[in-house]
Amino acid sequence: MTMQQLLWQGVQELNKARVPDPELDARYLLLEVFHLNLASFLALKARGLGEDEETEGKCREFMRLIEARAGRTPLQHLTGTQEFMGFEFLVNEHVLIPRQDTETLVELVLEEQKDREKRVLDMCTGSGCIAISLALMGRYRHVAALDVSAEALKVAAGNRDRLLGGYDGGFELFESNMFSALGTDRTFDVIVSNPPYIPSRVIEGLAPEVRDHEPRIALDGSEDGLTFYRILAQEARNHLAEGGSIYMEIGYDQSEAVEGLFRTGGYRDVRTFQDLAGQDRVVRARR
Ligand code: GLN
Predict the structure, then answer these.
(1) What UniProt keywords apply to this chain's record, in alphabetical order (predicted)?
(2) Are strands 87-90 and 119-123 parallel, antiparallel or unpaired?
(3) 198 CB under 6 A from ligand 1?
């Protein structure tokens, strides 16, 4: 059997299970198992696979991963990684898999906050992808990243260790239910957050990869999806320096509601920004 034929078996299994993008996912898993990049795969794919013990083990491992993917385990839980802002982040079932949509938030902050002396807080950091990308690309003086989940913080710490080696600013990671563990006198120039914002009843209708495998605690924004924006609107101002800004990811239909919470809360310059698909994606407000 050739590698191409093995790949094809995988594609067919994924097709049967109606996995979106079966060719792409099967190829990722094949490259992962055989430790190949795309170029070496293309060069080797038509050659016969060896019949040695090691190769047969890899074939079995590939088909095991294919079965898991057919059962709708997210690809990223099988490879253990997801790229975000050009960096490779470790992920597992305890953190939301970084989404490309969220790059809109990071890019907006980098665009508007060019001063490296800024102190940044990332609330609900999960894998740490926002905080670490901002530290690496904005080179800010200090970045603090908080999460309520100790398991998520382990993932974020792994990503810090892996990616932040050359960063010369301060980087803090700690457990906190929203602002609760943060000293009342601690202020930041920039607060960013991608909080859970999916209304509870909507979660049942999401793709099985998200619904059954990603942490509900990272998705569920309660009945109306807005619980964490209410807390942010109420408490962020106590932790923002005068003139400081908060940037939040929002659901495509939450702009009006979230802008309203921040206007009522006395914030200035409240504005919504769109992602690459043209959907409302980020709300920014200033103290
Ligand atoms: N954008 C994510 C999704 O659609 C949700 C992210 C969140 O709740 N913060 O699955």
Answers:
(1) Methyltransferase, S-adenosyl-L-methionine, Transferase
(2) unpaired
(3) yes
Task: Report the predicted TM-score, pTM, of the whole model to 2 decimal places.
Answer: 0.95
Per-residue pLDDT at 57: 97
Average pLDDT of the chain, as a whole number: 97
- Tell me the three state secondary structure of residue 170: strand
Query: What stretches in the chain show pLDDT beneath 70?
Result: none
CA dist., res. 181 & res. 234, Å (int): 16
In this structure, the residue with its CA closest to atom 5 of ligand 1 is: 219
Binding site as annotated, residues for substrate: 194-197
Please tell me the distance between residue 57's alpha carbon and the centre of ligand 1 in angstroms: 37
Q: What is the pLDDT of residue 284?
A: 98
Name the residue among 196, 187, 162, 203 with its Cα closest to residue 245: 187
- Helix residue ranges, H only, 17-70: 22-34, 38-44, 53-70
The pair phi, psi for residue 226, each rounded to 5°, is -105, 0
Kindly give the number of the ligand 1 atom that is closest to the alpha carbon of 197: 8
Q: What is the pLDDT of residues 84-95, one digit of tens each?
A: 999 999 999 999
